[in-house]
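Suppose you are handed only two things: the residues of a chain and a line of SMILES describing pyridoxal-5'-phosphate. What would the bound structure be? This form records exactly that question and the answer produced for it, so the two can be stored side by side and reused later without any lookup.

QUESTION INPUTS
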Amino acid sequence: MSGTGQRLYEKAKTKIPGGTQLLSKRPEMFLPEQWPSYYSKAKGVEVWDLEGNRYIDMSYCGIGACILGYADSDVDNAVKSAIDSGSMCTLNCPEEVELADLLCELHPWADMVRYARTGGESMAIAIRIARASTGREKLAFCGYHGWHDWYLSANLGQGDVLDGHLLPGLEPAGVPRGLAGTALAFRYNQIEELEAIVAENEDQLAVIVMEPVRNYEPKPGFLERVREIATGIGAVLVFDEVSSGWRLNTGGSHLLYGVTPDIVVFAKAISNGYPMGAIVGIGDVMQAAQNTFISSTYWTEGIGPAAALATIRKHRRCNVSEHLIEIGDRIQSVWRQAADRSGLNISVSGIPPLSHFSFEYENSQAIQTLFTQEMLERGFLATGAFYATYAHQDCHVESCLAAVDETFAFIAEAIERQEVEKLLKGPVAHSGFCRLT
Ligand SMILES: Cc1ncc(COP(=O)(O)O)c(C=O)c1O
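ANSWER OUTPUT
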């Protein structure tokens, strides 16, 4: 176990408020005081900590970014060549036009593309374009979309509006109170909630923004009705595919459901670990980006587009999504079978490439922490989520099955003896955003 990583993290918290730049990478979200925290090398699905301990990543795999696996050779070679050609210049890199062509070819309903480098930035741009294009201000949204003011403003009135949207406890401190009432939340598959928002705000809604799929499949007619509503009131429909994109097919998952948005946003998996974000949309709406100032130096560098082109081409060539679905399906049955054998009560959700499970007990968070602790001892980075990659192979599923079997049996016994908390070697993991001490 890596004491070096823990010591570095303790220091980090004195130099970096919140310890890291991403909530989902905080060791407290996995295994406080025990998580390796830092890596020295990552390749395929293997991760080495600062002391050289090796783990198999059966968790978030770069928080959903490394869909092909860590340090994929094809993508890395494209990036190295972009570096060798000079990744930044006074002139523009031609790859961004090549990528625009490829994204519009994959999404035939779309005409134009803008770029950023992260999911949150890209979503901020999408909302700005939608507001500029409609001249309206309010938005109806469902799901998590990032750290920006427009999203957090939903928590300005009632502090817990965002709790049902993936990450609980998000604090809007520092977000202007003037934004209160501009971001209105509805829940996935609850069309009546969107209809109620529309009934009260029809001519003020600039945009309806949501993920086409996340934890559950859309109910029949749900996405179609959202599309119909957006068209009916003249709002821009934005599909956030920062997480759902490239998992079920090459491109946005909305292509599978046959419902097209006005804008779709990609980031994370589009470029397998190199910063890249794309805002892809219909010409009429995207042209509004010319009426407002959206501009940043590093949105023009060459590594992101080179990585995205290599990732998408490999994705298409190797039918990566088929592999992700198969591996995700198998991990869901690993969890279910091990739970059946040990008599544990768990609930499994998510599209197979973005699989989740949770323990159905009062002290579920303590049990989840014990699961992570025990899996770590067996050489796995593991939590209640598994994001499949192209680098996960049969051998990983099989060794994971053996470890999950042992761990679930151990947990079942701990629950029976009421010893879960006693067996933890550190504090219980956090379940959402909170201030670190
Ligand atoms: C659906 C969705 N939108 C937006 C974001 C924000 O992306 P980023 O963390 O790159 O800013 C995320 C991140 O998890 C996401 O899952």
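WHAT STANDS OUT: The longest strand covers residues 205-210. The chain has a mean pLDDT of 96.
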